[in-house]
């Protein structure tokens, strides 16, 4: 493995751990305000502008409205200072569901 690749991998792992720590702190708020009882990270990707984006999987006690999901996505983007995309466990279908559920790291 090249040194540059190893350094980048270390940065990504450090960022993921920082994001997980922040999400752990916000978990009680997410439960109270959005009825989310389970959340996990399943992807940290770089978009075409070299900005990082975080994919979060949620499961809930009571289904949130589309407006609530958008509000949640915006709130997490602001708090985590990284673009967040929210996916619901019930919304996953087929092979995509299998892939995401095999990759997710729950918090």
Task: Explain what this protein looks like in three dimensions.
- The structure is a single chain.
- Strand 1 and strand 2 form a beta hairpin.
- The chain has a 4-stranded mixed β-sheet with strand order 3-2-1-4, sandwiched between helices.
- It has helices at 3-34, 66-80, 94-103, and strands at residues 36-46, 52-60, 83-88, 105-106.
- With 107 residues, the protein is of the alpha+beta class.
- The model has no long low-confidence stretch (mean pLDDT 88).
- The longest helix is centred in the N-terminal third of the chain and has 32 residues, at 3-34.
- It is built from 3 helices and 4 strands.
- The chain has a single domain, classed as Beta Polymerase, domain 2, CATH 3.30.460.10.
Structure summary:
The chain has 3 helices and 4 strands. It is α+β, with helices and mostly antiparallel strands and 107 residues long. The protein has one domain: Beta Polymerase, domain 2.
Largest sheet: 4 strands, mixed
Q: Residue-averaged pLDDT, rounded?
A: 88
Low-confidence regions: none
Query: Considering the protein shown, what is the CATH homologous superfamily?
Result: Beta Polymerase, domain 2
Give the helices and strands as they follow along the chain. Answer: HEEHEHE
Number of strands: 4
Helix count from the secondary structure assignment: 3
Q: How much of the sequence is in beta strands?
A: 25-35%
CATH topology: Beta Polymerase, domain 2
Radius of gyration: 14 Å
Please indicate the count of domains.
1
Level of helix content? 40-55%
Top CATH class: Alpha Beta
Which class best fits the helix and strand makeup? alpha+beta
Strand order of the largest sheet: 3-2-1-4
Q: What gross morphology would you assign? A: globular
The CATH architecture is: 2-Layer Sandwich
Task: Report, as a whole number of angstroms, the end-to-end distance.
Answer: 30 Å
